[in-house]
Amino acid sequence: MSGRLDELKRRMARLSDLKYASSLANWDQQTKMPPRGAACRADVLATLAELRHREFTDSETGRLLDAAAGELRGADPDSDEVRLVESVRRHWEKARRVPGDLTAEIARAGSRGQEVWIDARAQSDFAMFQPVLQHNVDLARRYVECHLGHDGFQCAYDVLLDDYEPLMRTAQVAALFDELKRELLPLIDAVTNSAGVDATPVEARFPVEGQRALSREVVELMGFDARGWRLDDTVHPFATGVGDGDVRITTRYDERYWPMSLFGSMHECGHGLYEEGAALAHPRSPLGAVDSLAMHESQSRLWENMVGRGRSFANVLAPRAAAHCGGPLEGLEPEALFRAVNRVRPSFIRVEADEATYALHIILRFELEQELIEGTLRVADAAEAWRARFRQYVGLDVTDDADGILQDVHWSAGLMGYFSTYALGNLIAGQLWERAHRDLPDLEDALAAGELGGLREWLREHVHRHGAKFPTAELLQRELQAPISVAPFVRYLKDKLGDVYGLSL
User: Fold this and answer.
1) Could you say which DSSP state residue 307 is in?
2) DSSP of 185-201, one letter per residue?
3) Rounded to whole angstroms, what are the CA distances from 291 to 168, 219, 462?
4) Residues 56-75: what's their mean pLDDT?
5) How far apart, in whole angstroms, are the C-alpha atoms of residue 374 and residue 208?
6) 47: nearest Cα among 123, 107, 4
7) pLDDT of residue 2
8) Alpha carbons 100 and 78: distance in angstroms, whole number
9) Cα(109)–Cα(132) distance, rounded to whole angstroms?
10) What is the structure's pLDDT at 326?
11) β-strands 229-233, 239-241: how paired?
């Protein structure tokens, strides 16, 4: 191993440690931290962000990159070492355009903003949150200004999108979403105008302690291991890896709608499995920190919906739900559960939306974010714009900010550019699901028996082990021999909903 490459790896390992420390502090803030710790925690996160930014953007990183590239001349272009240098250089070039004090302020504002959002959401009061959103939009615009004119960015939103889905451009996402919307709208009309689905099983009152036991049982089937994982409560569910062998996932509970905790746990466990697999393959390395949030969301959405809401896995869930709930679900039949959890019905909350209407929630946010960043939508008008767009796309009147613009944590944390990756993740999940069925012909039988290890290991081989080594487009080409596509997801959805509603779609 070459000397300069070794030095670069050691520097990146230290930076990974700082990132893990930030992740741990952020996890604690959203799960265990007492409220009075908020101000100090914001400063801690800002300091960690500034330290990491300073060491990463230092000219020594550039010198090590140049020297390591020279030492690797002639090496296999797909080796971990060559890909590491390429990935680090791209991130270094982008990060060094941003002043350290701006990086620190973005981290500080995100931490403080989350605390304000919790209170504003509880009181359903956008006016409380408006100054936070304005500050975060202003910071995002300053961040964008550091990058316009570089890296082929065509518009302001390209810069933000690139942080969550590297090398993807706004125009490409808009084209995919236009195609997806053309497919979904007639599908939604067809099923919502047909005979209804009995939703009684998901409306049963389910005590929280029983939900906890059910969620824990199911994620253990997926691969949750208490020796390296935690499952905790939070206001808005998330997952994070804080190092090799340490994965944190969260969920939330509602006695009136128990699928929220179960499918939320499966969703976050899907993220956690990806974090675990990438970190194991590339410990303390940038290649072990997944860059693509679309690929990340493909994992969570696949486990939550394609497995969790699938007909086969209903055979596993129905008896377990009945056992942990008791009376209201006694004798629950798998077929009844399968139909209930796949009912298509426009609703207010994104994370509770059915698979058909979910993308409409994402497209709304994708469009509003662009308008906020470009200045064509004032922050003061954002709540009303949300209500108008929601009425147009979903057909419901939002009368409560907690069910509208305040439902998601992302804007409070400064995560603008993130939302589109959820719907992109659905598309990738559709592609992976088709390929997994070709490679694993007995997959549905295994799912019906609660044997999830085969699918988990298939995903680890084809997705997780690569970590951030390949951009999304290249990974899909290598593993699926196809670009990101709408068609497989639509085929999957039509097959499932045709089955649920007894229609030929």
Assistant:
1) I
2) HHHHHHHHTS-----HH
3) 12, 24, 16
4) 96
5) 43
6) 107
7) 66
8) 33
9) 8
10) 85
11) unpaired
Q: Can you tell me the mean pLDDT for 203-226?
A: 97
As a whole-number percent, the residues of the chain with pLDDT over 70 amount to 100
Here the tokens at position 239 are: 């997952």
Query: Which residue reads 């959203």 in tokens?
Result: 30
Between CA 65 and CA 60 the distance in angstroms is: 8
Q: Token match 């906890």: residue?
A: 212
At 452, which amino acid appears? Answer: L
Cα dihedral across residues 112, 117, 122, 126: positive or negative: positive
Helix (H, G, I), strand (E, B) or coil at 414: coil
Identify the H or E element spanning 233.
strand 229-233
**What are the Cα distances from residue 87, in Å, to 93, 136, 392, 462, 481?**
10, 27, 41, 20, 22
Q: CA 255, CA 237: separation in Å to the nearest integer? A: 17
Measured between alpha carbons, how far is 479 from 465 in angstroms, rounded to an integer?
12
Active-site residue set: 268
Mean pLDDT of 466-480: 97
Q: Where are the domains of the chain?
A: 3-149
Provide the pLDDT for residue 505. Answer: 86
For the chain, how long is the longest CA-to-CA vector? 69
Q: State how far the Cα of 321 lies from the Cα of 255, in Å rounded to an integer.
A: 13
Q: Calculate mean pLDDT across residues 234-253.
A: 94
Give 62's pLDDT tier (boundaries 50, 70, 90): very high
Reading the block at residue 231, the tokens are 């499952």
